[in-house]
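Our collaborator T.R. sent over the components below with a one-line note: 'Predict the complex.' Nothing else. No constraints on interfaces, no templates requested, no preferences about which chain binds where. So this is a plain run: every listed entity goes in together, and whatever single assembly comes back becomes the starting point for the next discussion.
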Amino acid sequence: MKAAVFGATGYTGRLVAAELFRRGVDTRLIGRDEKALSAIAGAQDVRAVSLNDPSSLVDALRGCDVVISCVAPFTRFGAPVVEAAIAAGCHYIDTAGEQRWVRRVYDEFGAKAAAAGVSLVPAATDDGIPGDLIAGLVAARLSEVDTLRVNHGLFDAGLSRGTMLAFREMAASPPLAWQDGEWRETDAGAREPADFPGDGEQPSWALPGPEVVSIQRHVRARTIDATMNADLAAGAASLTDEVIAAAPFGPPEDERRATRFTMIAEARAADGTTARGHVTGGDAYGSTAVIAVEAAVRLGARAAPVGAVPPSLAFDPTEFLDALKPHGITWQIGA
Ligand SMILES: NC(=O)c1ccc[n+]([C@@H]2O[C@H](COP(=O)([O-])OP(=O)(O)OC[C@H]3O[C@@H](n4cnc5c(N)ncnc54)[C@H](OP(=O)(O)O)[C@@H]3O)[C@@H](O)[C@H]2O)c1
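Returned assembly:
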């Protein structure tokens, strides 16, 4: 299998490249700066391309089974990589957190990818894939689901500059929630507190969760939405242009490893019956690299459905979640 990383010089792209090398995957590093790409530890196959030159991008992806795009922000720079992947017949994964971008991948690129025999799995991150998988498993516990909510908890979080840019894009539009058969813009205000295992009850705010978009593709529910805890909300609220310009590339390694994340899925039936589960782990950016690479290896190794595919349909949910355990990511239903 041959994998490519687009945006390999970024904070997340470097972690993704390192994880591919650790797993012994033949890897091509792609970006706009050849010198910076060549300087990445383990780099052997590098391609410098411009997002404004579609044919060079397609050439760079030819011969690769799968590309992991780590560009920032996706809303502004994501499209040329998806288009090139479809043209090159290369499966596509990204590390996006931007809900509107994820919706665009499903709505705009899904049919083109299906026609080309390509699978697209956006939001292969510490929240996007665990949130989708645990929501599907929790929903399956009820005979019918009325409401499904995913609570994101990020603790002791240091954000990369790319994440800050993504948050700015996300703040430009209200969160989307699935309500009564259609996507609706919701207010970005407070929601009911969420009870995080080990961290207790936390105030919560509406979040444009990327997994809300993929869950709607495989779970029938009257409403599907997402919330975030106070740490994440405070990080997002503090981001001015000045703060972002002055921010370092990303948190240093010890701070990065100290972060923790929990994704809780809560489903409720119309008769009040509930089901609940969660996924929890540390090192949010390192875990994103592990999760994106696990998804890439699985897409590269066996036939998955084509088009834009929710993680729960692209992968076996329990098998995928169990594969994360050696990396300190655990999951539980009914707690
Ligand atoms: N849970 C989550 O939601 C989650 C977790 C991790 C990451 N992410 C997302 O992953 C993305 C990457 O984050 P990051 O922190 O790694 O960002 P970053 O450090 O800023 O890296 C961004 C990458 O995109 C490249 N890039 C930006 N604009 C470009 C352009 N016009 N042409 C070509 N390349 C361009 C950069 O290349 P140069 O190095 O040449 O500038 C760099 O390689 C973000 O969208 C972030 O939100 C999300």
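Summary for T.R.: The domain at 2-124+287-315 is CATH 3.40.50.720 (Rossmann fold).
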